[in-house]
Every structure is written in C-alpha cells, then in structure tokens.
Amino acid sequence: MEFHYEVSGNDFARAGLASSEIKKTLQRLGLPHEVIKRVAVAMYEAEINMVVHAGGGVADVRIDKELITIIMCDKGPGIEDLSKAMEDGYSTASEQVRELGFGAGMGMSNMKKNADEMYIDTAKGKGTCVTLKIRIPEHS
Ligand SMILES: Nc1ncnc2c1ncn2[C@@H]1O[C@H](COP(=O)(O)OP(=O)(O)OP(=O)(O)O)[C@@H](O)[C@H]1O
Ligand SMILES: [Mg+2]
After folding, report:
1. Per-residue pLDDT, 139
2. Whose atoms come closest to the Cα of 126: which ligand?
C-alpha cells in the first residue's frame, strides 16, 4: 500500500494532517498499538519540521507486511550542521514558531528514538529528505 501527501508550508492549522491520516490507516489495518504510536510520533515530527523549517514538501508512505517506510522531502534551506541539529535542545525556530509551541529542539531525537532506521539526506540551499523505517513485528 502506498500513500502520497503534499504538505503545505507554514500552514499551522493543517500541520500534522498527513501523519494523522496515516495513523488512522494503520488503526484500520489493525496493526499493533506500539507500531502505530511510533509511526505517528516519528512522522509527525518530520512533517512539522517540513512545515516550520522548510516551507512544506511531500510525504510518501509505504506499508508492507513487515515494514513501514516514510520518506519526507522538501526543497527548503537544508540543514547546515546535521550533528548539531540532532542534539536535544538545538533549534533555529523563529519566535513566531516558538509561540505556537514548537522549537524545543526535540523533534529529531524523537524521530530517531521511534524509528528503527533513520536516514537524512540534506544539502544547504537544496533541501532535505528524511527516511524513517519502522518494522512491524509478527502479530495476530
Ligand atoms: N526539514 C528541515 N529543513 C531545514 N531545517 C530543518 C529541517 N528539519 C530540522 N531542521 C533543523 O534542525 C533543527 C532541529 O530540529 P528538531 O525537530 O529537533 O527541533 P525543532 O523543530 O527546532 O523543535 P521541536 O521539534 O522540538 O519543536 C531545527 O531547528 C532546524 O534548524
Ligand atoms: Mg521539529
């Protein structure tokens, strides 16, 4: 099964829509609660980052029998120092974004914690692609 979403930039009213749609789909499929939670959290963080830091982008989600693959790509500013961006508490979020409750600098580590695999492909001035993989353990 494959799903594709366009994520608008700076649209805070709709931010998180793609991840909540995927969450509903996984619930309908009857996947384990733990898997749903991890996908929802990791994808939500990547989606919000595209909205607040990159002017939006596209999300592609593939659900296989044993694996969920989420690829989120934007054409934003890219991440200059990836190891710094991965640190807890590091954020370049604007004052406006912080007022909305984002910008604690916890999103990237939250993604890493919840995904089995995470790859970030980023280039300054070109954009960022985040790939998240979450395995589905055998279930009833
Ligand atoms: N898609 C992206 N495009 C450009 N920069 C990004 C992107 N995703 C993350 N970053 C950079 O990495 C930093 C850390 O991201 P992270 O998600 O950990 O924190 P945050 O978004 O600033 O705050 P929080 O996620 O806690 O609300 C961001 O502040 C930003 O500088
Ligand atoms: Mg974030």
Report:
1. 81
2. 1
For residue 116, the one-letter residue type is D
Give the pair of three-digit tokens for residue 66: 């044993």
Mean predicted lDDT score pLDDT of the chain? 96
Task: Count the domains in the chain.
Answer: 1
Instruction: Decide: residue 110, CB within 10 A, 0-12 exposed, 13-18 middle, 19+ buried.
Output: middle
140 domain residue, yes or no: no
Does the beta carbon of 127 lie inside 6 Å of ligand 1?
no
pLDDT, tens only, 61-83: 999 999 999 999 999 999 999 99
* pLDDT at position 78: 98
CATH code for position 105: 3.30.565.10
Measuring CA to CA, how many Å separate 11 from each of 2, 34, 58, 112, 118?
24, 29, 14, 25, 26
Q: How far is the CA of 138 from the centre of ligand 2 (A)?
A: 31
Would the CB of 118 count as within 6 Å of ligand 1?
no
- 106 phi and psi angles, rounded to 5 deg: -110, -10
30 CA distance to ligand 2 middle (Å): 28
Closest by CA position to 136, among listed 53, 55, 88, 69: 69
